[in-house]
Amino acid sequence: MVSRISLMRHLRGAVLTLCGALFLSACVAPPMGGLSVGGLSIDGSKKVQVAVLLPTNAADPRVRELAISAEQAARMAMDDLAGSVTMEIRIYDTAGLETQAAEMAVLAVEEGAQVIVGPLFAGAANAAGLAVANSGVSVLSLSNNVDIAGGNVYVLGHTYQNTADRLVAYAQGQGKSQALIVHANNVSGQAGSDAIEQALSDQGSVAAGIENYEFTQQDLVEAMRRIAERNELIEADVVFLTADYDGGLPLIAQLLPEAGIDPELVQYVGLSQWDVLPSAFHLPGIQGGWFAMPSPTRAEQFRDRFQSVYGNAPHPLAAIAYDGVAAVGASVATGNRDALNSKGLTLTGGFQGAAGIFRLRNNGTIERGLAVATIEGNQVVVLDEAPRTFSNSGF
User: Fold this and answer.
1) Is residue 375 within 8 Å of residue 273, measured between CB atoms?
2) Alpha helices in the chain (DSSP H)
3) Are 106 and 92 in contact (CB under 8 A)?
4) What is the pLDDT of residues 28-86, one digit of tens each?
């Protein structure tokens, strides 16, 4: 028996617009508050200088492949902006290292960068943000780690909190009020559980029960029986699972129903994106379960466009790099001299991205418009479409 389950953290990338051009626009509304960072302002007669920090020479070939795809997406976004703003992109290699990310951020600013898109990893993004904190240059990182958000650093990746907010609101709208949270006893699992608890609190509720398990296959198997017994006492009508497919989800989706939490009586809800592994769709906890995902239509359009331009499919994270450049261009296109500091980047109407709408908050975090979907007959079925604007979207 395998004693340890492999865990990899997956960031899923999420532009079509009701506000303008095919892929790029800002849905103009007043900023979401807060003071601008530094005194950086835009001269509309000059090109906007954008530095893109990526691990193009990272030791891991998979990371290098990701960086290539992200760079291609960033350049595609710049091309899509042609006619609305003039922009120049320069790529700076972080090698996936925090020290080099800081050095490249400083070099980029010295060479005229007015905004930074990237780096990819949280540590590198934090280091880059700190290195240029006094320059007035914003850092739109591709990370989803909200611990680094704030000041001049924004996170563009899909966050646990954003997903949890969407799913909890939908579940409560469907009359689900007794929530059981099941999570691994590790950093990722605890972060997911905390996000669900916060989302419940924001909706005026609390979890009926929270159960965890050690991240080993043996303990996971034993824990499913214990969790089912616990549920007999609390009688949950919805169970939130934080695990993804690399974090034991298939085993949980098989064993928890067998242990006694019947998917016909208790709604299963996943914090990860359940549509990425069709071979698991038949599992009793997955079939009929709810999960959140970017707008399928918008995401498919982005993938098709990327394929047509580059001849290959984009890496899942590439869309986030596209969104970073798209947000910069759309903000600049409003003509706001403060487009690249918090006043311009935190428009309440947000931006249209590669897989739907998103907006940045003045605390550096992100909100993305997500759909709620399920698995029926081994097919993904959207139950509630992703909002097309943030007006009356429940966000």
Assistant:
1) no
2) 61-80, 98-110, 122-131, 160-173, 187-202, 217-234, 249-259, 296-310, 318-333, 342-345
3) no
4) 443 433 333 334 566 655 789 999 999 999 999 999 999 999 999 999 999 988 777 88
pLDDT reported for residue 217:
82
Q: β-pairing, 371-376 with 379-384? A: antiparallel
Neighbours of 45 (CB within 10 A): 6
CA distance 179 to 154: 31
Number of H helices, E strands in the chain: 10, 15
Pairwise CA distance, residues 371 & 22, whole Å: 21
* C-alpha span between 60 and 66 (Å, rounded): 10
Distances (CA, A) of 106 to 33, 116, 137, 376: 28, 10, 10, 51
171 close to 238: Cβ distance less than 8 angstroms? yes
Question: For the whole model, what pTM was predicted?
Answer: 0.85
d(CA 370, CA 388): 10
* Tally of residues, the chain: 395
Residue with tokens 């050095």: 103
Tokens of 321: 């790099």
| pLDDT of the residue at 290 | 98
Q: Is 93 exposed, middle or buried (0-12, 13-18, 19+ CB in 10 A)?
A: middle
Peptide bond into 284 cis (omega under 30): no
Q: Which two tokens stand for residue 207?
A: 């979890």
Q: 159-180 burial, b for 16+ CB within 10 Å, e for fewer?
A: bbbbbbbbbbbbbbeeebebbb
* Residue 292, phi then psi, degrees to nearest 5: -105, 150
Tens-place pLDDT, residues 172-200 = 999 999 999 999 999 999 999 999 999 99
In angstroms, rounded to a whole number, what is the distance separating the alpha carbons of residues 13 and 375?
21
Cα–Cα dist 355/357, whole Å: 7
End-to-end alpha carbon distance in the chain: 45
Nearest residue to 209 via CA among 187, 236, 186, 184: 236
Specify the amino acid at residue 125: A
- Helix pair angle (217-234, 249-259), 10° resolution: 40
Span 360-381, average pLDDT: 95
> What is the pLDDT, as a whole number, of residue 41?
62
- Both tokens of 243, joined, read 């695990």
Mean pLDDT of the chain: 87
Question: Cα angle vertex 372, ends 369, 377, to 5°?
Answer: 150
